[in-house]
Amino acid sequence: MRNLVTAALLAATALSGVVTAAPAAAQSREELRRDRQDIRHEARQLDRARARGDWRDVREQRRDLREARQEYREDRRDLRQQRQWQRDRREWRADMQRWRAGHRDLYARGGWQAPFRYQSFRPGARIGANYYGTRYVIADPWRYRLPAAPLRARWVRHYDDAVLVDYRRGIVLDVVRGFYF
Questions:
Q1: What is the structure's pLDDT at 98?
Q2: Whole-prediction pTM value?
Q3: Under 8 Å between Cβ of 132 and 165
Q4: CATH of 21-176 given 3.10.450.160, 1.10.3130.10, 3.20.20.70, 3.40.50.620
Q5: What is the rounded distance in angstroms from the CA atom of residue 80 to the CA atom of residue 74?
Q6: What's the order of all strands across the beta sheet hosting 153-158?
Q7: What residues does 162 pair with on adjacent strands?
Q8: Most confident of 22-31, 64-73, 131-140
Q9: In angstroms, rounded to a whole number, what is the distance separating the alpha carbons of residues 126 and 133?
Q10: Domain ranges of the chain
Q11: How many beta carbons lie within 10 A of that of residue 25, not counting itself?
């Protein structure tokens, strides 16, 4: 019985980093919709506080409304950056393939292995933090001609792939398969 429980715990731990599909753009649009709802709710609360005439309550509701608007602006900026990244990467891929053909020695990095199995990630998928920890970060992406990572994102190596991950949410933004030879 103890072996069965131990095996179940190990399996649950191993599966915690497995990919779960969650389209990033759809999630961001949903976040924006919720943020707009929060702003409307906070504005109604502020109007009610003003009608009651309690200045402390009015001040608190103003602060809540300000925070809701700030969160909305941040999420909108994140979505804009994500869309810009998607446009830029199409142009980058064509240039990258031509450049790599003449600099194969830079990408020959031998038999690199991670302590976990290979997973084929797709943009929009959510991955566990153990896949994009500091151990796997590509510290000098400009050396490999990788484009600059957007805000709150970093390039990491996953076997022979280069994966761009939003490290705040664990969402894969881009994957360059077969990046290392």
A1: 72
A2: 0.50
A3: yes
A4: 3.10.450.160
A5: 10
A6: 20-21, 125-126, 171-176, 161-166, 153-158
A7: 157, 176
A8: 64-73
A9: 14
A10: 21-176
A11: 13
